[in-house]
Design a protein that fits this description.
By secondary structure, the chain is mainly α. It folds into 2 domains: 74 residues, no CATH class; 45 residues, no CATH class. A two-stranded antiparallel sheet has the order 1-2. Strands 3-4 form a two-stranded antiparallel ribbon. α1 packs across α2. Bound molecules: zinc ion (2 copies). The site of one zinc ion (ZN) has 8 residues, from α4.
């Protein structure tokens, strides 16, 4: 039997052959945290590390460590999601940041145009109607 310092909390603990480099208390805590993250990800597979940290109270550094250890998969591109507009791998939503920005600028200029023209009626199918675009954006969850 040999003693070691826990790499997580610094406490001295008894090192088991083939065991982890953290003390039994931390192992339990890590497993609890890991389960919390795991459960959260099963309901929100596209969650980012920040979202998980916020929802589970697990330190984001710990989440990143699980990622490095390949115990979790949530890095960009691993989610299977693609931007609807340009096809780039994304971690959440329906569009990449660039396209979302472009869209919001388009909406802005559409609203400007809409204000200037002041049409009495929305054209049929009204895909250029800012209200329609806003609704579409609202669904991006
Ligand atoms: Zn510890
Ligand atoms: Zn895109």
């Amino acid at each position: 039997m040999s003693l070691a310092n826990c790499t997580r909390c610094g406490r001295v603990y008894t090192l088991v052959p083939g065991g982890r480099d953290v003390c039994p208390a931390c192992i339990k805590e890590e497993d609890d945290n890991y389960l919390k993250i795991f459960h959260y990800l099963s309901t929100r597979p596209s969650a980012t590390a920040q979202e998980i940290a916020g929802a589970t109270d697990v330190d984001i550094k710990e989440i990143y460590r699980y990622l490095r250890e390949n115990r979790l998969r949530l890095v960009q591109g691993d989610t299977g999601l693609r931007c609807e507009s340009c096809g780039m791998p994304i971690s959440q939503g329906k569009m990449c940041e660039n396209c979302a920005k472009k869209l919001s600028e388009e909406i802005k200029s559409d609203i400007e145009k809409f204000k200037q023209n002041k049409p009495k009626e929305v054209p049929p199918g009204g895909s250029r109607d800012p209200k329609y675009l806003k609704e579409r954006r609202g669904k991006d969850k």
